[in-house]
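Reading a protein record of the kind used here takes only a little practice. The record below shows the convention in full.

——
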Amino acid sequence: MIVLIHAVGAAFYGAYGTYDESHHIIIINEVLFHDSTLYFALISGLLYAKILAPRGLLNFYKSKLKFILLPYVFFTLVFTAFKFEHEEGLLLYGYVNEVIINFIFGKASFVLWYIPVLLFLYVVTPVLDYVLKTNTTTRIIFFLIVFLPLVVSRIQMAQDYILKLETMIYFTGAYALGMFTGSYLDETMDWVKRHRLFLWICIVITSGLLYYFYKAQIDLLGFISLRESLFYIQKLGLAALVIFGFKQLDQRQPKWFYNIANDSFSIYFMHGFLVYALLPLLSPFLSWDEAKPFMVVLGSLTLLIAAVVISRIVVKLFQWIFGKYSRMIVGG
């Protein structure tokens, strides 16, 4: 979904030369796929509680250092080199300075803003774990953290991807809910099973409101983004139903899903660069005036498939060259 929203955005830009949030294609794209990084945050919290926590914090941080932080450094170096513009005589200094800024703020590629947020989530993981499991009082604080994103909104980044405390708080709520889900998976899935209709109603209502808010250009209520509050409810409701569905499938889950899931971080790291690198190849088709909306849809699917396939080819190539160490370079 994260790749798709960017593929649609790139194809639309290629066709119309702008990203017009009043256009029905962009509105549908935003309503369906905006804030899909909430899924990443929730799943990360779930995996920590269910699988990684029993292995100990030291092993948890070792794995994140090797398979998230090191690939993030690698891609920051690569993408910064691609877009680096230096002044004469300041090549090395300018490059190093830009790498440091891009690393801290996730600006080497427009999709990398989320990695500093994720690293922040890893840092606060022991605190969240303590608050969740200590006593009734701390658990109340834990659930306040889960619901805090309803009033503390992710900062909008339409023109530039920037790192803000509010954004970290927003994703901490989803990560914390993932930790709770992973700690009490069977009980949570039983609750989801009993409340599926309620969740679907919430998803439909929030989606309808989001469509209306985009058409009417409604967002802020004071310092609260109403859209981000609705997205939080919508995406977490969808995540609950999807997790429940996959748990019901159990061993019958499609093989391709495992392959994509194993390479999910590699695909995330690379897809932003790839969709815009491939976009010029589609320009002759996207500029066809008589069928622009259709060509945007077709172009989006083409960019989606191409970005995923090329990302997986790069992963396989690095695996062939570097073996088990490839994960410390390109993730996966």
The longest strand covers residues 220-221. The mean pLDDT is 92. The longest helix spans residues 292-322.
